[in-house]
Structures are given as C-alpha cells and as structure tokens.
Amino acid sequence: MLTRNMTKAVRTNTSAPSAKQQTAAVLKQKAQQIVKAECDHDVNRSKILGERHHHSTKLKTAVSQAHQTQARPTEETGNVQVRPRRKSIKVEYDSTAGTRDKELQDSNNPPKSRWEPQDWIKQLDNIREMRKNKDAPVDQMGAGKCFDPRAAPQVIRYQVLISLMLSSQTKDEVTAAAMKKLQAHGLSVENIVQTDDKTLGELIYPVGFWKSKVKYMKQCSEILQKQYNGDIPDNVTDLVKLPGIGPKMAHLTMAIAWNTVSGIGVDTHVHRIANRLRWMKRETKTPEETRVGLEDWLPRDLWSEINWLLVGFGQQICQPVYPRCSDCLNRGICPSANLKKTKGR
C-alpha cells in the first residue's frame, strides 16, 4: 500500500512542473523571442542598406550619362554639340501697380479740401488797400530800415539781427533811436565784443528789457566772432541757438538779411490780428502757435509780405486797445468788428 502511494506521488510530481520551472520556461521563451527580433532587425537593416546603395549607384550612373549627352562629339564633324541650357527668367515687378491702386483708391475717396478761413482773400485785399501808403512806423523804422546801407554785407546782416533783437517788446521809434546810437558808436561784431556792458546799456536804453539785451548782445557777438567769422548763420536752426533770438526774429532775419523765405514772422500784431479775423482753426495763445497755424493754410508766396502788412495794419487800424473798426475796410466781414476797449483780441 505504501509503495503504491509513493509511485502515485512520483507520477504526480513528474506530470506537473513546479512554479520555478514554469518561470524558467517563460524567461527562456522571451529570450528566444528577443534574439529572433534582433536577427530580423539585422536582416532588414542589411536589406535597406543594400537597396540604398543600389539606388545611389543608379543615380550616379544616370547623372554621368546626362553629362555625356550634353557634350557628345558628332560623327559628321567631330565638333562638340552642346545641349543649350534653359534660360533663366528674370521676374520684374510692376512698379506702377501700387500707384494705380493708390490712384483708384484716391478716386473713390477724394482728399478733403484744405481748411481756409472765410473771406480771407477779401480781408487781405482790404488790408493791402489800407497799407498802400506805407506810412506806418514799421515802414520807416522797422528792422528792414535800421541798418546802415553803406556798410559791408556782413555788417548789414549783423545790424539786422541786432535791430530785431532790440525790437522785442519795444516800439519801432525806440528801436530806431537805439540803432542810431549804436551805429555812431560802431555797430560791428568786433566793436560790440570790446564794448563794456555799462556803455552798451547807455547806448540801447530805454528799449524793453535793456539789461537782458545787453547780455544777449555780448554773448551773441562773441559766438558770431568765434564760430561764424563775424557773420550770422544762414539758417533758422542755427539762428535760434543764438542768445536772445527766437523763431520770429530768426524768420525775419532770413527774409531781410538773407532774402530767403523760411517762415512767417509772427509778433504781437500778427498774433492778435490773425485771431481777430479768425484766421486760425481755433484760438491760439502764443505767437508761435499762430505761426504754425498760418503756415498750415496760407499760400507760401504770401509769407514774405504778411508780417509787414499786418504789423503796419495793427499799428494804425487794428490796435490792441480801442481798435479803429469804423475806419477799417473789413468792418462788414470781420468777426470781431466793433470791438470795445480790448487788449490781446
């Protein structure tokens, strides 16, 4: 009985493998699969490389044959017959395309007309009529009349600059008197540089802000002597860098000394009258704002006369206080006609 049970146990153990045996069998199977995959990969890689080499060789052969075909001796003449290359095409852009598009756009959307004050042409013609006698102070004693015509051109230009510097916040009569005293003293860059401040003050008194102008004259003359060989700058950019010279003086200097129109010279008269006539899109607060506003719409060929016209008109008719509206030809078309006692408007 014992022998029969032992034989049965042995048979049971032989037919049913243990857990370790099962794990070992699984690992062995996976290892075989990995080895087979690597072998297959190597075979495929070798196949791919072989095909690549085959195609490369084929390509080189085709290129070589193509070159031989392009230059091959002919049997009849032995000359080399070259296959002509395909001509390259130069692409040129139509430079007028953008212009045509812009013209088409502009025709569909015409530009807005430039702003102009109402009745300004008639108003200007009336001012010309009122100024035809040229008998205002600016006509006899303005900066264009204060220089010594016998002096050298370089000295004349310097005297124009000094007269404009002195005219700021000063009546033409006072400026003209100061200029006569300066010319008697010797109004040149060299003389003013050598003149002491006390003497200069006595010569230009009582022009407005005479103490500051003495300082400006000395500084300005020293700069002209060192940097401009005694002459004055011939452009607005450098003129306004000089002590005591602002935009109005610079533009008037260009017009009188250099006979060049660079802009409109706007003083208190031009500033006041331009606003009274509503020649501004909106009321301006400073002469420089007025200059920019006038230059925006006033035709350039009128820039040279507008200062002279309006300054004299302001001195005689359109005065700061109690303007003489009853004597003005523009009284029927002036927006500010019949003003009472007024200053600055």
Give an overview in words.
With 345 residues, this protein is mainly alpha-helical. Among the domains are: 116-134 and 263-345, Orthogonal Bundle (Endonuclease Iii, domain 2); 146-260, Endonuclease III, domain 1. It has helices spanning 2-15, 19-70, 97-108, 120-130, 137-141, 153-167, 172-185, 189-194, 197-204, 210-227, 236-239, 247-257, 268-276, 287-297, 303-316; strands at 71-73, 80-82. The protein has a two-stranded antiparallel sheet. A hairpin with a 6-residue loop joins strand 1 and strand 2 (80-82).
The ordered H/E elements are HHEEHHHHHHHHHHHHH
Distance between the termini: 144 Å
Strand order of the largest sheet: 1-2
C-alpha Rg, in Å? 49 Å
What summary fits the major beta sheet? 2 strands, antiparallel
The helix fraction, in percent, is 55-70%
Strand content: under 5%
CATH topology of the domain at 146-260: Endonuclease III, domain 1
Quick rundown:
This protein is an all-alpha fold. Among the domains are: 116-134 and 263-345, Helix-hairpin-Helix base-excision DNA repair enzymes (C-terminal) (Endonuclease Iii, domain 2, Orthogonal Bundle); 146-260, Hypothetical protein, domain 2 (Endonuclease III, domain 1), CATH 1.10.340. It has 15 helices and two strands.
Question: What's the arrangement of secondary structure elements?
Answer:
Layout: H1 2-15, H2 19-70, E1 71-73, E2 80-82, H3 97-108, H4 120-130, H5 137-141, H6 153-167, H7 172-185, H8 189-194, H9 197-204, H10 210-227, H11 236-239, H12 247-257, H13 268-276, H14 287-297, H15 303-316
Antiparallel strand pairs: 1-2
Helix pairs in contact: 6-7, 6-12, 9-10, 13-14, 13-15
